[in-house]
Specification:
- By secondary structure, the protein is α/β, with parallel strands linked by helices.
- It has one domain (about 5-25, about 55-110, about 135-325): UDP-N-acetylmuramoyl-L-alanine:D-glutamate ligase (3-Layer(aba) Sandwich), CATH 3.40.1190.20.
- The chain has ten helices and 14 strands.
- The chain has helices spanning about 5-10, 60-70, 85-95, 140-155, 175-180, 205-215, 220-235, 275-285, 290-305, 315-325, and strands at about 20-25, 25-40, 45-60, 70-75, 80, 105, 110-120, 125-135, 160-165, 185-190, 200, 240, 250, 255-260.
- An eight-stranded mixed sheet has the order 4-1-9-10-11-12-13-14, with helices on both faces. Strands 3-2-7-8 form a four-stranded mixed sheet. A two-stranded parallel ribbon has the order 5-6.
- Helix 5 links the parallel strand 9 (about 160-165) and strand 10 (about 185-190).
- The relative contact order is 0.15.
- The structure holds adenosine-5'-triphosphate (ATP) and magnesium ion.
- The site of magnesium ion has 3 residues, from loops.
């Protein structure tokens, strides 16, 4: 089979994949209104509400990406006891994601970022203010125990376990220990990679890799040193450093390095959430039996598709197939 045919075959098996996504889930809200007048209550704009859009954020976006690629997904994380939690449950459940493992903490709000944007009759829409709901309190021991229990319950039944750590408190020593009880734990975290000792693969972006390595990555040699340093510090089999417009570099514990260029450099409109898409396609390719290099290529391909769309985006198996077919890359 040609290299490309092998990748097509991996994509064909995405729907057979099952994943447990653990992490800091959030709700992203977008409220839009048209400016009417200035208030008499204070020097503020009054907007006439037009529409509200709610989309999964944080770890929920990672889970959503998996679901759109056809996989069976279970989500474990913490939500509050509020309307935002209900909205998140509905959106995830509608995408076919199992939300029965969500743990409820009545003392904290569901993490929510609400953007309020306005436009006058003809003007472009622009953001006016953003309201964040979240708690800075660490998770109670009881909640950590509940989370760990849910992780243990679902881990065995899934072919991979993904940690999506936005540093919002889901991951404590206790819950991390529960996630590491799996042979295929993939970690996407903003910081603290070494806390996930022995996980299979990490997907830091460049700033995250610099932070974790403790030095700036300015040259190719720096990148090599960072890859080696992160492998050493985490005990991982692979470190995949995603490098934005430079694509990605995969470092293996066997001393190998493979570079993959960004497959789409001309039609890039919004890179938000591209990291979550990489993790989803990469993980499903691994579960399907691909090696880490093939998985990284498919993660990179999926990212090259979603950066074309505004907002956090997802892609599907049919789109992956067609973009793979058109991909002209000399290594394939
Ligand atoms: N400017 C860009 N041009 C082309 N491709 C890009 C660009 N930015 C990102 N990508 C693609 O998306 C992948 C992941 O991007 P990046 O390294 O920015 O991840 P990230 O910072 O974790 O993203 P996020 O946290 O917003 O989800 C890259 O490896 C590349 O394939
Ligand atoms: Mg990221």
């Amino acid at each position: 089979m040609s290299a490309k045919a092998e990748l097509h075959a991996l994509i064909d098996r995405f729907a057979e994949g099952s994943v447990l996504v653990v992490g800091d889930l959030a709700l992203d809200e977008f409220l839009t209104g048209v400016t009417e007048r200035i208030s008499r209550e204070g020097p503020v704009l009054i907007l006439r509400h037009e529409h509200t859009r709610q989309v999964p954020g944080g770890a929920a976006n990672a889970a959503y990406n998996f679901a759109k690629l056809g996989a069976k997904v279970t989500m474990v994380g913490v939500v509050g006891e509020d309307l935002q939690a209900q909205a998140l449950r509905n959106i995830l459940a509608e995408a076919g994601i199992d939300v029965s493992g969500l743990v409820v903490d009545p003392t904290r709000p569901t993490i929510t970022k609400t953007r309020i944007a306005a436009h006058s009759r003809q003007s472009v829409t622009q953001q006016v203010v953003r309201i964040d709901r979240k708690s800075d309190e660490p998770l109670s021991l009881d909640l950590q125990a509940q989370l760990s229990e849910q992780i243990a319950t679902y881990a065995a039944a899934n072919a991979a376990l993904v940690c999506s750590d936005y540093l919002e408190g889901t991951f404590t020593d206790k819950t991390i220990a529960a996630t590491l009880n799996h042979s295929r734990t993939i970690v996407d975290t903003h910081a603290g990679l070494e806390r996930y000792q022995g996980a299979y693969l990490f997907t830091p972006n460049l700033p995250e890799a610099e932070l974790a390595a403790g030095f700036a990555i300015r040259s190719d040699d720096d990148l090599n040193r960072a890859g080696a340093e992160l492998l050493h510090r985490t005990g991982a089999k692979y470190i995949l450093i995603t490098r934005g417009e430079e694509g990605m570099s995969l470092f293996g514990v066997d001393g190998t390095r493979r570079d993959i260029p960004a497959f789409n450099r001309t039609q890039v409109f919004d890179v938000t959430g591209a990291g979550d898409t990489v993790v989803a396609a990469l993980t499903l390719a691994l579960i399907a039996g691909g090696d880490a290099y093939q998985a990284a290529i498919l993660g990179n391909l999926a990212a090259s598709i979603v950066v074309r769309q505004f907002g956090t985006a997802t892609t599907d198996v049919a789109t992956l197939h067609s973009h793979l077919e058109e991909l002209e890359w000399t290594f394939l």
